[in-house]
Amino acid sequence: MHVLRSYMKYIRWFGQQGSSDVSLVGGKNASLGRMIGALKEQGVRVPDGFAITVDAYWQVLDENDIRAHITALLASIKADDVATLQKAGAAIRAAIEAATLPDALQEQIVHAYDALSEQYGQPALSVAVRSSATAEDLPSASFAGQQESYLHIKGHAALLSTVKKCMASLFTDRAMSYRMQKGFDHMKVGLSVGVQKMVNAGNAASGVAFSLDTDSGFADVVMINGTWGLAEALVKGSVIPDEYLVFKPLLKKGYQPIIKKMLGKKTTKLAYDARAEKVGITAVAEHKQDAFCLDDEQILALARAVCVIEDYYSAQEGRWAPQDVEWAIDADDRQLYIVQSRPETVFAQQAPATRYATYSLDTDKELKPLVQGMSIGQQIVSGNARVIASIQEMQEVQGGDIIVTQMTDPDWVPVMKKAAGIITNQGGRTCHAAIVCRELGIPALVGTTNATELIKDGQTITLDCARGQVGAVYAGDIPFKKTDIDTAHLAKPPVELLVKCADPSRAFSLSRLPVDGVGLARLEFILSNNIGVHPLALCFPERIEDAIVRKEIECKAAPYGSLEDFFVQRLAQSIGMIAAAFYPRKVIVRCSDFKTNEYRNLLGGSYFEQHEENPMLGWRGASRYYDARFIEAFALECAALRAVRETLGFANVQVMVPFVRTLDEAQKVCEVLKQHGLERGKQDLRLLMMCEVPSNVLLIEPFSAFFDGFSIGSNDLTQCMLGIDRDQERLAYLFDENDPAMRMAYQMAIEGAHAKGRQIGICGQGPSDEPDLAHFLIATGIDSISLSADAIIPFLLNN
User: Fold this and answer.
1) pLDDT digits (tens, 9 = 90+) for 320-355
2) Domains of the chain with bracketed CATH
3) Is residue 432 annotated as a catalytic residue, yes or no?
4) Helix ranges, 647-731 (H)
C-alpha cells in the first residue's frame, strides 16, 4: 500500500524543517532538516526521517495530567544535593513512561513510520529514535548526550514505547543538572523526538568528527574519531578510538593532507544482534583490531563533508561556526552518512586568543610517572585521588578531588563539576570525559588502561596534561608554575624569530606564539617517538634474527600497507602536523642526525649499527645519506619529505641537511636528494645546511653554491671548535657557546653567507640560554634566531 506524506499536526519531515523551527522540533532535528535541504547537492548524505514535535510532548503531559506533578517534583530538588535530584528525576521519568500517548498522536507516528519504511523499501524499517530539545545544540550550550538515544528500533509497538522513553529522558539526572548549570527553566524546555532511518554501522564503522582540534582549538583541521560498530561505544568511552586529522585549507585545494592517523584500541564493538533483537557488545575480530576503521579515501571524504557543513553554518550565522558531527558508514551500501551535526560550544564562544598560558613542573627531581595516557586540557593540577568504581560512589567525591575511574558517561556530570581533574582507564579524545572536561575547563587523562589499579584512593597526586598529547600522573604534590602573557602587546623583534618544534603533538599550541615559523624541526624526535624502528629494519627485515623483535616490528606496521609505508606515512604525517600548525609560515625540517648509539636504541637497530667510541664525531648526518650501507633508509626519509610537499601539499616545508663535513659531501648529498625528487628550486624547494663544523665556517662561501641558506648549530660547532665532546661530563664546565672563539666563528659565518647573498640564522641552544649572545648575534647581522618554546616570551620581553 502506498503511504502518502500528508499533513499531520504532530509530525514534521526532516526535509520540511529549517532554522526557524527550533521551537517546534528542537535544535538537533532542525539541523538535520537544514542539512537535507541545503547540502544534499554538495554530496552530504543525511538519512531521512521525521520529527515528532514539541507540541506532542506538551500534549502528552497535559492529557495525562502530569505537568503539575512534574513541577512539584522539581521543586523538591535542593541545591548541590545530588540525592534529591536523583529521586525527583526517577519519579518524573516513571510518570512520563507510564503515560498514554493520545490516539491522534499514535496514528500520526505510525503513519509517518510506514511512509518512511516504504521510502526505503523495507516493510518494518530499523530506525534511530533520538531526543531533540528546544534548548539543545545551541552555540552556547550543546546539551550533547544529556537525553537518551535508542537504536535499531523496529515496528509500531516498539517505536511508540520508545517515543515515551525518549520524552522521559528530558529528565535524566545529567540533563537536569546541565539545565540548572546553564540557567534554563526545566518547564520551559520542550522535547521533540527524531525518528531517523538507522545507518547499519554494526559491521562497518562510525564515530564523531569536529571541525577543529578539540584540545587546542586550532581551527584549520578536521579531527575524526572512529571505531568499529556503533558510535555510542566511542562517546561513552568503552573503546579507545582511531584518531585522524585532516588539514582543511589544503584539502580544499585538492591535496590529501592527512596529518595524523593513530590506531585506537578497539577490542569490542556495539552492534545490533538480530537474534536477540537488541543492541549489544560483541568482540572485534583480531585482524580488525589491528586495522584502521577508515581508509584514506573515507577519511578525506568525511573531512570534506565536515568542511561543507561548517562552511554552511558559518555562512548562515555570519561568523565562524565550528561543528561537532556524528557520522556512520553503512555496511549495506558502504556509503558515508552524517547522522547529526551540532555547534561546538567550547572554542566557538572564545575571542581570538592573545594570551598565551603555559604550565610546567617546577622541580629538579627526576619523576617517574604512576601512569600515562592521552592528555586533555593542557593544564597541571594537584589533589587527592578519588578512585570511583561506579556512579553510585559519587557521594565520596569532594571539591578539588581528582576522579580516577574506568570511564564516565553523561550521568557523571553533576559530580565531575566538583573535580579538579579526571583520569580514566578507557576512552579517547572525544569520549564523554574528554568533552565534558573541556567544557568545564579542567584537565583529563584518558585511555590510561590501568589508572584505577596503580593509583590509590586518597593518594595525593599531580596530573600533568601540559606536555602535549601524552600526559602523566605523578605521586605527591609536585610544584608547578603557570606563565600567562598577553602577546598582543609584545614588540616585534629586530630579526626573524622562529621556534624549535620537534613534538608534533605540541605544534598546534605552539603555533599561537608570536613567531615567524619553525626554525628547527628535528626528525630524530619524530623517528624515536612516532616510529621507534630503525629504518633499515624496515628495508631488510630478513636480517633481524630475533623473532620477538621481528614480530614487534610487524605489529607496529600492521595497519599500513607495508613496512616501508609505515615509515613513510608516519613520518610524513608527523612532519605535516607541524607544517599545518604554522601554515603558511615556513617550517625548516632537518634531516635525521642520529648518532650510532641512538640508532642502536631503535627497534632492530643493533643489527645495523656498530659500536663507536665517540659517536658525536662518528657516522652521523650527511655522511650516512650517500653511503651504500644507509642509502635505502635515507630513501624512505626522502619519500616522506616529498609526500609532505607534494601529496599533503605543504610547500612551506624547507629541508635542512646536518653535519656536512666537506664540499664533496655537500655535492653528493644534493645529488642524492635530487634523485629522490627533492631538487633544490623545484616547486620552490629551499635547501639549507647546518653550519656546525669549522669547515662550514671557513668555506661558507663555496658551500653557498649548493645551498640556499644556513643555520648555525652552536652546540656542535662549539664541540668542534673547542674540542669538547658534548657527552663528556668532566669537561662540561669548558663548554661555552659564548666563548670568544665562538663569537669569531659566528661573525665569519654571517659575513661569509651574506657575501654570497645567502640568509643565515641560528638554531642552537645558545641564544635560548644566554640573552647576551642573542644581542651579539643581532648586532652582527644574523637574519633569524630559533629559540625553544619556553624562551620565546622572555626573549620578546627583553628585546
Assistant:
1) 999 999 999 999 999 999 999 988 877 766 655 566
2) 11-197 (3.30.1490.20), 205-343 (3.30.470.20), 355-484 (3.50.30.10), 490-798 (3.20.20.60)
3) yes
4) 663-675, 694-698, 700-703, 714-722
